[in-house]
Amino acid sequence: MSRSPHTMRRVNCGLSGSASSSSKRLCTTDFMMIPSLGRHRLARRLAASTTKPLPGAWVEKPGLAAVAPPPRRTPSVSLVGEDYPAQAGLADAAKSPAREGRGSAQPKGEELTGRRMIEIDSGLREVVCLGVVRADGVAVAREAPDVWAEIERLAASLRTRYTGKAPGEIPELQPARELYRRTGEDPTKLRPSSEALLRRVLGGRALSRINSLVDTCNLCSLEFLLPIGLYDADRIEGPVTARLGVEGQGYDSLGKGFYSVTDRLALFDARGPFGSPTNDSRRTAIDETTRRCVMIIFGPGSYSAARLRAHVQAADARLRAFAQTTRVETAVLGGR
C-alpha cells in the first residue's frame, strides 16, 4: 500500500491512520542516529518522551472505581482492537466478575466495554510490531497431553527441516534476530526466546512441561519462530507500553534471576517492566489460578502485518483448543 508523506500505520490495530510528518521523522531520525548518540542516551530520550495515542487508539474510560482484587492480584485492563468492536470485547477490569474471585462467572456481552491496553513507544513504531491475543476464562491444567503431543509432532518436523543448519542459515529465525539488532541487542549473545526453544529441539532435548497454558505458548512460539510473552492479565497494572528500558530497570525473571532491561526492549506497566522477547517476570507469571491472560508476539517493524495477523488467529485457535477459553480478542500493532 502506498503512503503519502503525511500518513503512517496506526499502531493499535495495524490499519492506516493520520499522524504528523514531524513525528514520523523523529522515529526515523532517532534510530538512524543510534551509533552517534549511544544506546544509553537514546533509551533516556525514549523513556522521557510522552506518547500521544494516535487517532482510533483505545481510549481509557475515566472515572471507573477499581474493585478490590483478590489477594496478590492487581488491577488490570482489557483489550479491544479495531478488528473487534467494543461491544464484542472483554469486560472492563473494574466491572469484570473475575475481579470478585477466580471462580466467578464470565462477563455478559452487554456489560463489555473497551480500554486501551498496550501501545508501542513513538520512537519504536517503525522498529517493533506486536501481535496481541487477550483471552478470558482460561482453564490451566498441570497435565497437558494434547499440547505435548502437538509439540512432539512439531519438533519432529523441525528436526527434519533444520538439523545440520546453523541458526544464521534458517530464514525463519531472521525476523527475531532483526528485531534484536534494530533495538540495539546482539542476538548471537542474547538469544530470542523462540531461537532458544528451536535450539533445544534441534539438540534433541525435550522442552520443559509447565502447564497447559505455558506449553501452548511454547507451541505457538515454535510454530511462528517468533518470541512470545505470556502474562496473567490480572497481575498487570494499567496500560502497557513497549519501549527501551533505562539504567537500573529490570525484573525478577523466571529461572534466570534479575534480568536487566537497560537499553533493551521490554513491556512496562504502572509498576515497571514485566516482560521482554527474551524472558518473562515472576510478577506476571501464569499459574493454575490464572483465568485471564495476554499473549504478546514480538516481531520487527518490517514484518508482514498480514502474516502477524495469521499468527494471532492461529494462537486464538490454540487457546480455544487447549485452554478451553471461549472469549478471545486479538490486535496487530505495526507491521507492513
Automatic annotation (TrEMBL):
Q: Where is the B3/B4 tRNA-binding domain?
A: 174-324
Which residues fall in a compositionally biased region of kind Basic and acidic residues? Answer: 97-111
Query: Which regions span the lipid bilayer?
Result: none
Q: Which InterPro entries match?
A: B3/B4_tRNA-bd (IPR005146), Phe-tRNA_synthase-like_B3/B4 (IPR020825)
Q: Specify the domain of life of the species encoding this protein.
A: Bacteria
PANTHER family according to UniProt: CYTOPLASMIC PROTEIN, PTHR39209
Question: Its Gene Ontology molecular function terms?
Answer: phenylalanine-tRNA ligase activity; RNA binding
- Gene3D superfamilies, alphabetized: Phenylalanyl-trna Synthetase, Chain B, domain 3 (3.50.40.10)
Spell out the protein name for this chain.
Answer: B3/B4 tRNA-binding domain-containing protein
Pfam families named among the record's database cross-references:
B3_4
Spans annotated as Disordered: 1-23, 91-111
Tell me what organism the protein belongs to.
Candidatus Segetimicrobium genomatis
From the broadest rank down, the organism's phylogenetic lineage runs: Bacteria, Bacillati, Candidatus Sysuimicrobiota, Candidatus Sysuimicrobiia, Candidatus Sysuimicrobiales
